[in-house]
């Protein structure tokens, strides 16, 4: 028996971020500035870590991976959204929608696992400093990073393939500004039971388990910091993980609001606004958070800027 392609919809129409934008040029300019800042900021972080030997440590290796994930996240969504702002009919092809869904799901799943790996790195650095070199060797860091990207890729591939097996007969209006799983799934005219089961499993294993592991890591970190006698030592220990803790808080607050809920409780209009946080605002803020109080990154960035002055 030959497999058949039941997909009847060849393209989708995006509702966009705003139903009736009154200040389209202002919105375009604002979002373009955020996007360019996110790309340049994260690229500077990657470049600074690559060329500055003092930053060739496990912590900065994972920060470079996070910057790469943030570039992928923003670039999977924002260029098409910016283009649609000046189009009367905001369309995306079926193949383009699936590609966007794959890229975004890859970046979001990878970031969840990566933040856990980063929290483990901080746990080892603060709770087992004498064993840090052995427990976070170069080979172990590369293996962890490869595992992180493998988990994100497999998760994204599973959701994408499950989406491809569905029938889309119409309507084809996506109530969002990009192809995310819940609003696309709502348009299917065939059973989405298996998709919802896999989404639930991803919520448990990617979101809940990683959140729990990150929480456990920071519980041990906080206990270890309180055991430090000198206030200066406590401040130094906390400063090594404060940036990561802030990034974790920003990312998980939006992810939990959007995904850790029953499908029936989704409010797509509100979710569009929250999606701006994790597709644009968070990738823009992450480089700022990691470089604002980090003198080593500041020194490295000055070395690669063309207008560097000593």
Automatic annotation (TrEMBL):
The topology of this chain with respect to the membrane is: Multi-pass membrane protein
Where, per UniProt, does this protein localize?
Cell membrane
Pfam families in the cross-refs: 7tm_4
Q: What would be an example GO MF term here? A: G protein-coupled receptor activity
The keyword Cell membrane is assigned to this record? yes
Q: Which Gene3D superfamilies match?
A: Rhodopsin 7-helix transmembrane proteins
Keywords associated with the record:
Cell membrane, G-protein coupled receptor, Membrane, Olfaction, Receptor, Sensory transduction, Transducer, Transmembrane, Transmembrane helix
Segments traversing the membrane: 26-51, 58-78, 140-158, 197-226, 238-260, 272-292
Q: Name one GO cellular component term.
A: plasma membrane
Where does the record place the G-protein coupled receptors family 1 profile domain?
A: 41-290
What protein family is recorded? Belongs to the G-protein coupled receptor 1 family.
Identification of the protein by name: Olfactory receptor
Q: Which organism is it from?
A: Gopherus evgoodei
């Amino acid at each position: 028996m030959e497999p058949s392609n039941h997909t009847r919809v060849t393209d989708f129409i995006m509702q966009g971020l705003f139903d009736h934008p009154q200040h389209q040029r202002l919105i375009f300019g604002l979002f373009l500035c955020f996007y360019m800042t996110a790309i340049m900021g994260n690229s500077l972080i990657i470049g600074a870590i690559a060329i500055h030997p003092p930053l060739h440590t496990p912590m900065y290796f994972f920060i470079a991976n996070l910057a790469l994930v943030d570039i992928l996240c923003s670039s999977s969504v924002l260029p098409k959204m910016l283009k649609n702002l000046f189009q009367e009919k905001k369309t995306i092809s079926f193949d383009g929608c699936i590609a966007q869904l794959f890229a975004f799901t890859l970046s979001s799943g990878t970031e969840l696992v990566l933040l856990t790996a980063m929290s483990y790195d901080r746990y080892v650095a603060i709770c087992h400093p004498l064993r840090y070199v052995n427990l976070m060797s170069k080979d172990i860091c590369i293996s962890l990073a490869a595992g992180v990207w493998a988990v994100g890729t497999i998760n994204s591939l599973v959701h994408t393939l499950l989406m491809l097996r569905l029938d889309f007969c119409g309507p084809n209006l996506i109530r969002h500004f990009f192809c995310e799983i819940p609003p696309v799934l709502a348009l299917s005219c065939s059973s989405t039971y298996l998709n919802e089961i896999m989404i639930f499993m991803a919520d448990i294993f990617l979101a809940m388990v990683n959140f729990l592991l990150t929480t456990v890591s920071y519980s041990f970190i906080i206990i270890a910091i309180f055991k430090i006698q000198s206030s200066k030592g406590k401040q130094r220990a906390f400063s090594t993980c404060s940036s990561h803790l802030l990034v974790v808080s920003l990312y998980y607050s939006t992810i939990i609001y959007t995904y850790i809920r029953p499908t029936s409780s989704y409010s797509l209009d509100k979710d569009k606004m929250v999606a701006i946080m994790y597709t644009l605002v968070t990738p823009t803020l992450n480089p700022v958070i990691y470089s604002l109080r980090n003198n080593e990154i500041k020194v490295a960035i000055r070395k690669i800027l063309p207008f560097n002055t000593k």
